[in-house]
Amino acid sequence: MNTSTDSKKPILVLDNINLSFKGVKAITDISFNVYEGEICAVIGPNGAGKSSMLNVINGVYIPQEGSITFEGRQFSKMKPGTAASMGIGRTFQNIALFAGMSTLDNIMTGRNSFHKATFWETALNMGRARREELASREEVEKIIEFLGLQSIRKTPVSSLPYGLQKRVELGRALAAQPKMLLLDEPMAGMTMEEKLDMSCYIQEVNANLGTTVVLIEHDMGVVMDVSDHVVVMDYGKKIGDGTPEEVMNNQDVIDAYLGVSH
Amino acid sequence: MYYREAGRLVKSFADDRRMLPLKEDRLLSTLFVVGVMYILVTAFASDYLLSAIFIPMMVLGVATLGLNIATGYTGQLSLGTAGFMSFGAFAAFNLVLRVDWMYIPLAFFLAGVIAGLVGIVFGLPALRIKGFYLIVSTLAAQFFSEWIFNAYPWFLNYTTSGVVNLPPFHYRVFPFQELTPLNDAFWHSSRGRYLITLTITIALIVACKNMVRSSTGRNWMAVRDMDIAANVIGISVAKTKLMAFFVSTFYCGVAGAMYSYCYIGNLDFMIFNLRRSFLVMFMVIVGGLGSILGSFLGAIFVYGWPILITRLGDWIFGGGTLDTAFVENNSKIVVGTIIIVLLIREPGGFAALWNTTKQKLRVWPFSK
Predict the structure, then answer these.
(1) How far apart are CA B244 and CA B223, in angstroms?
(2) Which residues of B touch A58 (CB under 8 A)?
(3) Interface predicted TM-score (ipTM) of this complex, two decimals
(4) Inter-chain Cβ pairs, chain A and chain B, closer than 8 A
(5) Quick one: pLDDT at residue B189?
(6) Containing domain of residue B30, as a range?
(7) In A, which residues are within 8 Å of B208 by CB distance?
């Protein structure tokens, strides 16, 4: 069906996912692949089940049916911890930063899987704890520089404007050095300029680090510009899957977005 | 070189991570701890000042810090503080009593570990419940401790009165005393007890500061601020909560052991009652959630206020004018009012007030 991505290796395979909440079907029979190194956009009207889809991928929701295969390992139940340790990073639609901590600490927290020191080692500031802290700090500074967050390094994130908070959240996800990033509306509520910045960051991460990106976005201009692959959802079902051009010309998609006369 | 923060460029990440980034701060705090706390106070403070002011303030400060680790840093409310303190106190007593070669510092440490393990058990409900409901389950720790030490006289070494005196000289403080000029008689005096309390308190403050400036503390705070996000970025929420409960009750347990051995000199489970749990909680609220400095400011204020007004009353109206009932009620009213005012105006407590003041002074006089 999708000629442009057939040659690539799928990093994530979703097979027949069904998710319902007490009788309300959120996702019905959804299967699609995300290919290594691509930017995949999941689009659809509000309430289509896009965020639920991301939550299924990284184990926040457990689907009643279906399986998730990430890098060849198949799961019927993904757990958030497993997803994180396998290299799935995530940002949220409503910012989920740690409000009481500084920008630096938030991003440092993203590197928690690299910290092996036990609590007594940190309490006594022993060699391994100290080394890990400094190594993480060095990596985190690269991200701070990349995202231009130097001036707000020590600022509590709760006092930052919305656009910057979104950026810090991306930084926290990047700090884990993920293989795949799930971005839930990374540009929602941003000004044009901030959207451009964010698109650049996403594309740069994708191009330079080879990180696969799955993002949910409502701004069609952005979606068509940045993504290699688009999946369209409506009422919990998949109604389109392909390159941006293919999707744009798909009658079901046009109907879902523009409405059809009955 | 001026003593100010502006214009100090940090040249390495190790420097930026220091506990006290300013050279002057390091110098002043070393001078304060060594010069004032260790030398001047030990040399000149009266017995009353040492055993009724400094020792209890530090002991309660450590207990407050313990509660702050669970509540302020990890967001797990707890009303079992005094119960956890009593586990520490009883563990230390039984270790000293039943193990021949036991010495006080080791007994305190092991008492903390035992209290910490108890804390893990009572922290287990935190894996499923949050907020106010957790208060109920930690309250169980409080009542459990009062019940078990009453029901099983073994813990009190079958003392009929329910109170064990810890008279000087029935326990050893340090090994190798023959080799040092300071013998048990010194360590049992108020000066000796003050030095033990001070050293343990400083060690626990440094350890806590080390934890909160590293991955351990970040994980605690991540769980406090948003546990779902913490889980998604790979932090094990269950492990983090239990670890916080362990460390928190370790601190409370050591505080309990110090309370018995260094402060009141007896072991009585009635002292570690719910009232004391509430008192420590007030100290956390007044001092500041999630602040080491605040823990001690809160302890100093809540413990010190009744003493202060008694002294003031004696000084103004003549000795003994203010009766204890008045002082007690007055301090309840004042602490209560301050809690209400702080909750409305500055939920961060004294520690936040201190930081705001520092921030204002930093830019003074160029900005209000």
Answers:
(1) 10
(2) 232
(3) 0.91
(4) 108
(5) 86
(6) 22-273
(7) 123
